[in-house]
Specification:
Elements lengths: L4 H21 L8 H42 L7 H14 L2
Helix pairs in contact: 1-2, 2-3
């Protein structure tokens, strides 16, 4: 099964965090040029910030989805109490609590 975007972003975030620790604190064991280390750290910090941004966006999508479902509940609140309304409300409310 293909991983979700959230899972991919979390994996990238964890990888960047591990790599940042490696390149920041292993100044004697890693046999690399200081400029290479600097470039690597800059890229890893950027990627960490980028993944954080998109994880926040993903969270906003969930909130916006629930807001739209709630609006539908409010929109149909004026309907008479019928089986149709009950079925509509049951389906919409179920999704709100998943």
């Amino acid at each position: 099964m293909k991983p979700t975007s959230k899972e991919v972003l979390e994996k990238i975030s964890k990888h960047c965090s591990n790599e940042l620790t490696l390149y920041k604190f292993n100044t004697t064991t890693l046999q690399i040029n200081d400029k290479y280390r600097e470039g690597r750290l800059t890229a890893l910090e950027y990627l960490g910030e980028l993944t954080y941004h998109y994880l926040q966006e993903e969270q906003k999508i969930q909130e916006q989805f629930k807001e739209q479902v709630t609006k539908q509940l409010e929109l149909h609140s004026c309907l008479d109490d019928t089986e149709y309304k009950r079925g509509l409300y049951d389906a919409l409310n179920e999704v709100l609590y998943l």
